[in-house]
């Protein structure tokens, strides 16, 4: 080994501990200074699925839009009608379940901020009332804390600005967060509800939920006469 090589190796050995120390201090400072950013990253990783749609402005300047959802509509209804496509961040439905007492707001789109306000519907899934897979999720320690109580035969009702839609639970499911089997688009009309599987060790890799089939549609307006907000 020549003198230059030996000198270079010695320099590397001397600098390596200082480089590692600098990196460790930098990481520690980031964790201490920006805990909220760290939390957001954890939330996104712990509760992510490939279908979630976050707008370009999500997390900064997100505007929530609430609607007055009619839960006891007494007017004439129709078997067929038109849906009203919501905007990102809009609460366009209220969910009720026969197995437990809830009146849960459902927002269109998914982001860590939206999950703080209610359940979120993946914008990669079909609008409530359309044919296909409607996918809705929420955190297991808040809005979907009792989702595990749903069993076959239980009913789920979704009231929207344009109609009321009822479903019956047909299957309880459990899957890994990387398995898109239950949350991908489908030609079959169904409602998929899911959340993280509760784990005291903090692992959020597993999901639990239910598959529901539609049993009744009640549109408030005929096709071509959709209600406006």
From TrEMBL:
Transmembrane segments annotated in the record for this chain: 12-33
Query: Where are the active-site residues found?
Result: 139, 196
Which keywords appear in this protein's UniProt record, sorted alphabetically?
A: Hydrolase, Membrane, Transmembrane, Transmembrane helix
Q: Where is the signal peptide?
A: none
Q: Which Pfam families match?
A: Sortase (PF04203)
Annotated GO molecular function terms are: hydrolase activity
Among NCBIfam families, the record links this protein to: sortase_fam
Name by which UniProt lists this protein: Sortase A
Upper taxonomic lineage? Bacteria, Bacillati, Bacillota, Clostridia, Eubacteriales
């Amino acid at each position: 080994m020549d003198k230059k090589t030996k000198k270079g190796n010695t320099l590397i050995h001397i600098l390596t501990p200082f480089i590692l120390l600098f990196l460790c201090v930098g990481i520690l400072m980031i964790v201490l200074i920006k805990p909220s950013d760290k939390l957001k990253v954890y939330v996104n990783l712990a509760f992510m699925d490939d279908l979630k749609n976050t707008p370009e402005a999500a997390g900064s300047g997100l505007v929530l839009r609430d609607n007055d959802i009619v839960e006891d509509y007494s007017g004439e209804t129709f078997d067929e009608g038109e849906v009203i496509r919501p905007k990102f961040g809009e609460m366009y439905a209220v969910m009720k379940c026969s197995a437990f007492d809830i009146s849960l707001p459902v927002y269109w789109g998914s982001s860590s901020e939206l999950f703080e306000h209610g359940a979120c519907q993946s914008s990669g899934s079909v609008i409530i009332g359309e044919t296909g897979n409607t996918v809705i999720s929420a955190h297991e320690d808040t809005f979907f804390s009792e989702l595990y109580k749903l069993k076959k035969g239980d009913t789920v009702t979704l009231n929207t600005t344009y109609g009321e839609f009822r479903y019956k639970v047909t299957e309880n499911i459990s899957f890994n967060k990387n398995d898109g089997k239950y949350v991908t688009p489908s030609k079959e009309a169904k409602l998929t509800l899911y959340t993280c599987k509760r784990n005291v060790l903090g692992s959020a890799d597993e999901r639990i939920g239910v598959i529901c089939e539609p049993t009744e549609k009640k549109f408030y307006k005929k096709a071509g006469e959709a209600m406006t907000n």
